[in-house]
Write a structure and sequence with these properties.
331 residues; Rossmann fold; 19% strand
Length: 331
């Protein structure tokens, strides 16, 4: 197939392009060109800007467009309307954050999405990110009524993930020693390796599927303890997990999710945030590699990029961790 990827040089887009090439599709990427020709001539590169400069897309046709970088409804509307006569299907990479709330376990694709009081806002933050993505989905459906594919991933992890949200744990476990571990060891986790996500997207396209899919994992329930024990088995069996309850972490002013990635304190409002229903995706071909492979490959990618701990975008400062561990072990 002839596939157009909007973006295509970072994380999700990068791995979607790699997977499409692996499957022998003809790929065009459209972006601002700031990353250069990272695919060494294997893809057609069109230079432009989805914010007001789509001219390079004029007069060309593709079977599918995959939008990996749509955050603002205005810009998604522009690209969807511009491509409505030149692309057969519009694939939009959305997010599970579109849902109205996370107070229910096992939410499937039928649950209502969030809404904004001011739908014209273009400020993307924790409050607006999900509802803005929901508005982006609506624009895609408006212009590609019968030929849209909406993918709602959970937390996307793996090599090339510059957020550090997953990467912190393999890095920290590999360093060893006593590791401050958050909350309830039996708390559930969900995430998806970016390479598994890319395979699923291309599989759905090849199978001519349409509609909306939650896409996260793994297939069987995964606890925080199991995840960290897997990190230990893969990278450093001598690391020692020291579990701290929510009240202690709050006392130490340690921030969930950012300083201790993947950790969401228990609350009625967030009980379903890491417990989504993926039955539809599993039925239609979503598969997962071994967790140890994701951990190992993420660690090796991270190790080779030579980013220091204090340069990470997420994770707990080692001095702050040591102080907290000292207080915790004195109790």
């Amino acid at each position: 197939m002839r596939i157009l990827v909007l973006g295509g040089t970072k994380f999700v887009g990068l791995h979607i392009v790699k997977e499409a090439l692996k499957r022998k599709h003809t790929v065009t990427v459209f972006n601002r060109g700031t990353a250069g020709d990272i695919f060494e001539g294997r893809v057609e590169q069109l230079i432009g800007d989805r914010d007001g400069n789509l001219n390079e897309l004029e007069g060309k046709k593709w079977d599918v467009v995959i939008d990996t970088a749509g955050y603002l409804p205005r810009l998604v509307k522009d690209s969807a309307s511009f491509l409505s006569n030149s692309c057969g299907k519009y694939v939009f990479i959305s997010t599970i954050s579109v849902y109205n709330d996370f107070s229910s376990l096992n939410m499937d694709e039928s649950f209502p999405v969030g809404k904004l009081e001011n739908e014209k806002t273009e400020e993307v933050n924790g409050e607006t990110y999900g509802p803005l993505k929901a508005l982006c989905e609506a624009e895609v459906k408006n212009y590609f009524k019968e030929n849209n594919l909406i993918i709602r991933p959970g937390l996307i992890v793996g090599p090339d993930d510059y957020t550090g949200r997953f990467t912190y744990w393999p890095r920290r476990i590999a360093r060893g020693g006593k590791v401050l571990s958050p909350g309830n060891p039996e708390a559930l986790l969900q995430f998806i390796d970016v390479r598994d996500l890319a395979k699923f997207v291309l599989h759905l396209i090849e199978e001519e599927k349409t509609g909306t899919y939650n896409a996260t994992g793994p297939k069987e329930p995964l606890t925080f303890k199991s995840f960290l024990e897997n990190c230990k088995e893969t990278l450093n069996p001598h690391a020692e997990l020291i579990w701290a309850d929510v009240s202690f972490l709050k006392e130490q002013e340690i921030t969930p999710w950012t300083e201790l990635p993947l950790f969401v304190p228990p609350s009625e409002k967030m009980v379903g945030f890491l417990a989504f229903n993926i039955t539809k995706a599993l039925k239609d071909g979503l598969t997962f590699r071994k967790l140890s492979e994701t951990i190992k490959d993420t660690y090796e990618w991270d190790h080779n990029r030579n980013v220091k701990d204090n340069e990470m975008k997420a994770g707990l400062d080692s001095n702050k961790e040591n102080l907290a561990l000292e207080k915790l072990l004195k109790k």
